[in-house]
Design a protein that fits this description.
The chain is α+β, with helices and mostly antiparallel strands. 18% of the residues lie in helices and 27% in strands. The chain is globular, with a radius of gyration of 24 Å. The structure holds D-phenylglycine (PG9). The site of D-phenylglycine (PG9) has 12 residues, from helix 5.
């Protein structure tokens, strides 16, 4: 599917630099469990019928729970072979698998609405993904024989969003859900915008792939996306050039650039109070699409977490993965080698036991709250909550001489300056940049772990570094950027990257001198007073910008340096800020784009969640 994940037997050699199919491909299942396949059309409350495939193990007559995945990416792939290959641990455990096309996609009737808003569930006629799940469950319990009356729902990304919806005013038979990289709020932190900065090349590619037909077809752009979007000038122009500008979600981008009711009504985090189903949230440290969603859903659900109450339970699994990477072996990601098949470990030791415990009463699920694969030390950690209580916030200051340290600078009026020129934006990854889901080998899947030295020599990327560390430094929890910055323009983007700089040491091989992003984020300056009300930035006036770079569990090893980089573009993933305040950046005209003098003042710092050293 969109991200090369669990649907279908397609393997993507995405971990291009180190990917070895013998190590990183899925292990061949050690025994094969045959399944019978049935195709059904399931009626919803408004008469629309949804297409689903039901797979049931041939080798047992015992009542089994359902394990359901709903998806916009098609279900025809689902069969005995593919379920054994793709969901190996779960297939061997034995479930009645149900794969359903959501409204308006593939074999289902009705109209597809991207991230369909949640309706008022008191209205018996209104439909959304939550009511469609409810109606599907009610039908399955009645029409599929030898079920044990329990249902689990899981999915990654869009299907992760659908799994979360299964927990909102759930059917009583839904006993466990696992939203994995669930897109949760596509304006604040997931697919389409981050803190208001528009994810142009991704929004363009994904929507074109999804809304051009009932079936998803990705990878349309066949030139360097950097050239394509620079030449187009704005998203409005890129849409026109493509000849497809009437796609509903493209129109939504243009009509709703700020955080209004359109985006709020699609955001899941406001609806999680009714979740009374044990929930396993799963996320990747280097998820290039939905890194925010699982961390946010967990944060909203955690206050309701009651260990004595089996229903209000939330668990979190975080690992060194790209989007959906846990469905593969994932010993490697890009150039990184974690030394163990972290994805296999997660599926065998966390995911399969979670569903077996809640759907089959089998013991063996031992996660108390959070399981995190700590990078740098490369080991699994268990925590009572995320972030753990024993971390201490320490501020790492960006000094005017380019150094980085824990003491507050004496002169907070001093600054580091650079010029940001929209005519020459900073690429977010090495060029050429092919279409987001281009066939095998696309750099999209691993760009967050790409060596940042590819930007060496650029004068519009400001860097600060510590001396080599004389002991390990562990950060466990949320990292926050607190910039004091000015621009000579009247609008500006601020990108902050926290980097682990490896020592120059030939024994490290390709990791010698590597600059690995640990966390990173962008903030669109016009939203500093609130996401619903963009405002011009007063030129040349220092302003404070505070935003989360998200969670990490990482050890900067002794001898490494901590590095911070700040830049004002990340192109073409994010559209260029013209640096002149205009009502809608997606419709900015060529004359609006102007170079700006940027200053980062010495009081700026990164709030690090420092864990006690062992
Ligand atoms: N990240 C994809 C997506 C989800 C929701 C909205 C838009 C895109 C996906 O992989 O499903």
């Amino acid at each position: 599917d969109a991200a090369g994940k669990v649907t279908g037997v397609r393997r993507i050699a995405d971990e291009q630099e180190s990917f070895d199919p013998r190590i990183d491909g899925r292990p061949e299942p050690n025994h094969f469990r045959p399944y019978d396949r049935e195709e059904v059309m399931i009626p919803m409350r408004d008469g629309v019928r949804l297409h689903a495939i039901i797979l049931r193990p041939k080798d047992t007559q015992a009542p089994l729970p359902f394990l359901m995945q709903r998806t916009p990416y098609g279900v025809d792939w689902a069969a005995s072979d593919s379920i054994n290959a793709e969901n190996t641990e779960l297939a061997q455990s034995g479930y009645i698998f149900v794969m359903e096309d959501i409204r308006g996609r593939y074999g289902s009737q009705g109209t597809f609405v991207m991230m369909r808003p949640i309706v008022d569930h008191h209205d018996p006629h209104a439909v959304d993904e939550s009511t469609d799940t409810y109606d599907t469950v009610a039908w399955l319990l009645k029409h599929v024989s030898r079920n044990n009356g329990r249902v689990g729902v899981l999915g990654i990304s869009y299907p992760g969003f659908l799994a979360a919806e299964a927990g909102i005013d759930p059917h009583p038979a839904v006993k466990a859900i696992s939203p994995q990289a669930p897109m949760t709020d596509v304006w604040i932190g997931d697919d389409f915008f981050h803190n208001g900065a528009f994810r142009q090349s991704y929004g363009y590619d994904y929507v074109l792939g999804m809304e051009s037909s009932k079936q998803a077809t990705f990878g349309w752009l066949n030139e360097d996306a950097y050239d394509y979007f620079l030449h187009a000038g704005s998203f409005a122009q890129a849409g026109k050039i493509s000849g497809s500008s009437d796609l509903p979600t493209w129109k939504a981008f243009l009509d709703h650039p700020s955080y209004d009711e359109f985006w709020r009504s699609r955001a899941v985090q406001y609806h999680l109070n009714s979740v009374t189903v044990p929930t396993l949230e799963v996320g990747g440290w280097w998820d290039q699409e939905d890194m925010w969603g699982p961390q946010e859903q967990y944060a909203v659900l955690e206050p309701h977490n009651q260990p004595g109450d089996p229903m209000h339970r939330v668990f979190l699994a975080l690992g060194p993965w790209r989007h959906g990477g846990w469905s593969q072996t994932t010993r490697h990601l890009g150039a990184l080698d974690f030394g163990a098949p972290v994805g296999d470990e997660y599926r065998a030791q966390i995911e399969a036991p979670f569903f077996a415990y809640y759907l089959k009463d089998q013991p063996g699920f031992d996660v108390k709250n959070t399981a995190a694969f700590q990078t740098g030390s490369d080991r699994w950690m268990r925590y009572d909550q995320w972030p753990p209580k024993n971390v201490k916030e320490r501020d790492l200051y960006l000094q005017a001489d380019g150094s980085l340290g824990f003491s507050m600078p004496a002169d907070t009026k001093a600054f580091v300056a650079y010029t940001s020129d929209p005519a020459d934006p900073v690429p977010y990854r090495r060029r050429p940049i092919e279409a987001t889901y281009a066939p095998a080998g696309s750099g999209w899947y691993t760009w967050l772990v790409q060596d940042q030295r590819f930007l060496n020599g650029r004068k519009d990327v400001a860097s600060w570094t510590t001396a080599p560390l004389d002991h390990d430094l562990t950060i466990t929890g949320d990292v926050v950027a607190d910039l004091t910055a000015s621009t000579s323009g009247t609008d500006s983007d601020w990108v902050v990257k926290l980097i682990d700089e490896y020592p120059d040491d030939p024994s490290l091989g390709k990791m010698s001198g590597y600059e690995l992003m640990i966390v990173d984020e962008i903030f669109r300056g016009r939203y500093r007073e609130g996401y619903a009300h963009p405002e011009a930035i007063p030129a040349n006036q220092p302003e404070e910008y505070t935003f989360s770079l998200h969670g990490a569990d990482h050890v900067f090893l002794k001898g490494h340096r901590v590095m911070v980089q700040v830049q004002s573009s990340w192109f073409p993933l994010y559209d260029r800020n013209p640096q002149t305040f205009v009502p809608n950046i997606m419709e900015a005209q060529p004359a609006d784009f102007k170079p700006a003098g940027q200053r980062i003042y010495a009081g700026s710092h990164i709030e690090l969640p420092v864990a006690p050293q062992p």
